[in-house]
Amino acid sequence: MYAYVDYNGKNVGRYNWKKNDLNLQVRQSWNPDSEMVLSLTFPPTDPAEMNKLKQELAMAHANYKSQLLEIQNMKDQNKALNDLKLQTEKTKRETEAKYKKQEEAAKKETDKKLADLKVRMTVDLNYFSVFESF
């Protein structure tokens, strides 16, 4: 929208539209200080066209609300998946730590049994050595 105003003195002048894409209607007046006032109004609209526009707006609004709801559902699903991923990773770490402790305990037990077995074998060999010497 672009209007040109040609002011020619007190309460004298004219306006000229250079661009009026909205087809606005103009009413020209002068205020007491000799300033031109342009009052802009939209052109009257056919009631049937207004109803059609209202319906289109209502449909667009409903579509917008539906899309917002869909986006919120997607966000909720994404959060649930992230929570599940975090819980899975936590469980994995806990399970790995548990099995590592069990493995270390089993290794200690095995090492202890091997050490006991070596001692018993040494004792047994020494015992047999003593009898063989007789």
What does this 3D model show about the protein?
The chain is of the alpha+beta class. It has a domain at 2-44. The protein has one helix and four strands; from the N terminus they run E-E-E-E-H. The chain has one helix at 47-132; strands spanning 2-7, 13-19, 25-30, 36-41. A two-stranded antiparallel sheet has the order 1-2. It has a two-stranded antiparallel sheet with strand order 3-4. A hairpin with a 5-residue loop joins strand 3 and strand 4 (36-41). The longest helix is centred in the C-terminal third of the chain and has 86 residues, at 47-132. The protein is rod-shaped. The relative contact order is 0.05. The model has no long low-confidence stretch (mean pLDDT 87).
The major β-sheet equals:
2 strands, antiparallel
Question: Proportion of β residues?
Answer: 15-25%
Principal-axes shape call: rod-shaped
Q: From the alpha-carbon coordinates, what is the Rg to the nearest angstrom?
A: 46 Å
Summarize the amount of helix as a percent range: 55-70%
- Strand arrangement, major sheet: 1-2
Number of helices in the DSSP assignment: 1
